[in-house]
Amino acid sequence: MTCYTLGAWKNINKIKIENIQKHLNLWYEKNHRKLPWRETNNPYYIWISEVMLQQTRVDTVIPYFLNFINKFPNIESLAYAHEEEVLKMWEGLGYYSRAKNLHRGAKVIVEDFNGNMPDTLEEIKKIPGIGPYTAGAILSIAYGKRAAAVDGNVMRVFSRLFYIKEDIAESKTRKEMEKIGGHVVSPQNPSFFNQGLMELGALICTPTSPKCIACPLFLECSAKSLGVQETLPIKKKKPKVKTVEVEMAIVYKKKKLLIMKRSTQGLLANLWAVPATERELNFENGKSIRLELEENYGMKVTEGKFQFEKKHIFTHLKWKMKIYFFKLIEESPIDDPEIKWILHDEIEKYVFPTAFMKILKEIESIKADEVCKL
């Protein structure tokens, strides 16, 4: 059985490719899940769905997708929306740079392409946030173009199907697999073929315990014939996620909660939050965040009263969040639109990242009156 090394994809047997195309397209036609973005070939809807599906489960995406296209039914409505509106519709999905790139991309499409999603690889790659995978998905699904759409699921399928023993975490492997995708994609129905590969990776050719007996490509799978399907793909382990202790301040003034907009750069950029800071090594009992309030916000507050602890995991780090309540004693006049005092029923007007929404939901049951008695 052939083991295909990088660069050897052109040697894949023509009959093998034709069998893969035939069986995969038939399987997808009969077995694909009924999902709202599959009921259309509207390139805008396909674009939105593909971006939402990055790093996010299908079941989670469905209501967000429906709400998003209801709010922004076309590219123009998205382009002319305020960023805050777009982020609000994204609230809870995480990875907010995706929403920001969609917004930026819509503006580029309106300004440079008369509001029409480009239908060539050269032009579609000019849209912010559209990389090789998203470009291939839009071109093949919306326009029926013969383009590769290779994501993590597809790389896993290819690793097993063609017995490729290369690290899929490396960019050179991804680039070669994109070439494989372009080589084997069905010319008759590239939409079904690419969606079939994605669906196969999601439902059958799973990371662990692949359901080989139900796979339409069972007879063509090199790894299965050797009994090594569960050893592939090869992927180097991610570095251990760093844990950071973060102190957060819940500060009330006459039943109003203090919130602020985070920096335009870095983690959770430009989103609303309660004051937060990394805990200094030798500081305890909320001292780090209390100094932050005094030095950066000009607020004199009581000693912090610890309330509860939460955890939140990002891609590259884990926050161990400690929440402290403070009573405001004195404040310097602040003329900054990015620092606000709001009532609890006004929280919905602002976009908070998931990490902070966990905190806000937790404190909903705590009366502001009780905090003020600290």
From TrEMBL:
EC class of the enzyme, as a word: hydrolase
PROSITE patterns: ENDONUCLEASE_III_1, ENDONUCLEASE_III_2
Catalytic activity: Hydrolyzes free adenine bases from 7,8-dihydro-8-oxoguanine:adenine mismatched double-stranded DNA, leaving an apurinic site
Keywords associated with the record: 4Fe-4S, DNA damage, DNA repair, Glycosidase, Hydrolase, Iron, Iron-sulfur, Metal-binding
Keyword Iron: yes
Cofactor note: Binds 1 [4Fe-4S] cluster.
Cofactor(s) in the UniProt record: [4Fe-4S] cluster
One Pfam assignment: NUDIX_4
CDD domains documented for this protein: ENDO3c, NUDIX_DNA_Glycosylase_C-MutY
Keyword Electron transport: no
Its biological purpose: Adenine glycosylase active on G-A mispairs. MutY also corrects error-prone DNA synthesis past GO lesions which are due to the oxidatively damaged form of guanine: 7,8-dihydro-8-oxoguanine (8-oxo-dGTP).
Homology family: Belongs to the Nth/MutY family.
Entry protein name: Adenine DNA glycosylase
